[in-house]
Amino acid sequence: MKHIGLFLIIITALFGCKNASKQITISGEIKGLGTDTLLLYGLDELYDRIDTVYVEDDKFSFQTDIDTATYVALLFNDRTEYPIFLDKGNHIKIEGDTSNLNRLHVEGNIYNEEFTAFQYELEQAGLSSSKAIEEKAEAFIKEHHSSFVSLYLLDKYFVQKDEPNFEKIKSLIDVMTGVLQDKTYIEKLNEQIAQAEKTDVGKYAPFFNLPNAKGEKISRSSEVFKKKNLLINFWASWGDSIANKQTNRELRKIYDSYKKSKYFAMLGVSFDINKQQWKDAIKKDTLNWEQVCDFGGLNSEATKPYSGEQLPANILLAPDGKILAKNLQGAELKKKIEEVVAEAAEKDKNDKKK
């Protein structure tokens, strides 16, 4: 019996050590917080939850378990968020002041110290332009190619843009070591880039065949679009309402100008999932040109190559399906359409003379 008791004590101790090695502690003091509630949420799939952190007299302490290194965001009530990098067994200490929540001092592992130093360098340099900050972020990634901070900076300054430069993003991924490249985030990002490259200017637009409101299948090569330059607008009723409104106003003007044209047509492709909401949006915004949707949302296989775009988006196709332009707006879009229509009319005129 004594041997069994000793065995149980050893097993209990081993399990206790195992759990302790997973545990992390986040504590801090941020002057001016008083009594408050903060949120801690994951920035990658390794921390797929939201936790509440309670603050009393400017101070807080929080414990949880993690299986591997990851990073999270500490979200304040004014919507400011600050990244915290975590690894098993860490004791993270945070200090700062509510007067500058973008300049916290975080200790507990090398990643937090690297990010704190990066933020301090930005502040000391007095950088305000996005280009200058991106240059600093790029330099950091190239110098710290195995740091989790590099993943965060890649996402914040290069991926989360209205028009990401995928060539730049690929070049930055290439300098990262395998430990970062093996992360699910990078794998998904590479998939997104591969899809986006299918719709680069100069390439032929990926084929799709989607139903309109009558159930008729429509594609870019449908009879109604033959021999015409085609402007395809990608949108969703659940998208940015202000952007949708502004874009639809421009599109209505274009449609009214070219609805009888022999050389130009328009097609709306929606990422909606609710048929009634789609129909209501078409009616409300007077989208009188052809509209199609299979209600697969962003997961639709038919429109997957286009799902990485910031909605609303557009592509302009030549009659043979080659992509002439992407995501032009306002005067630029109007000018480009005028050019391709004029070229098509001139070509038609010359062909008739032959």
Question: Which tags fit this structure?
Answer:
Thioredoxin_ResA/DsbE_sf, Immunoglobulin-like, alpha+beta, 354 residues, Glutaredoxin, disordered N terminus, 5-stranded mixed sheet, 8-stranded mixed sheet, elongated
Structure description:
Keywords: Cytochrome c-type biogenesis, Disulfide bond, Redox-active center. It is found in: Cell envelope. It comes from Bacteroides reticulotermitis. There is one protein chain. The protein is of the alpha+beta class and 354 residues long. The chain has three domains: 89 residues, Carboxypeptidase-like, regulatory domain (Immunoglobulin-like, Sandwich), CATH 2.60.40; 71 residues, no CATH class; 144 residues, Glutaredoxin. 40% of the residues lie in helices and 23% in strands. It contains ten helices and 15 strands. It has an eight-stranded mixed sheet with strand order 6-5-2-3-4-1-7-8. A five-stranded mixed sheet has the order 13-12-11-14-15, with helices on one face. The chain has a two-stranded antiparallel sheet with strand order 9-10. Strand 7 and strand 8 form a beta hairpin. Helix 3 runs antiparallel to helix 4. The radius of gyration is 27 Å and the shape is elongated. The N terminus is likely disordered.
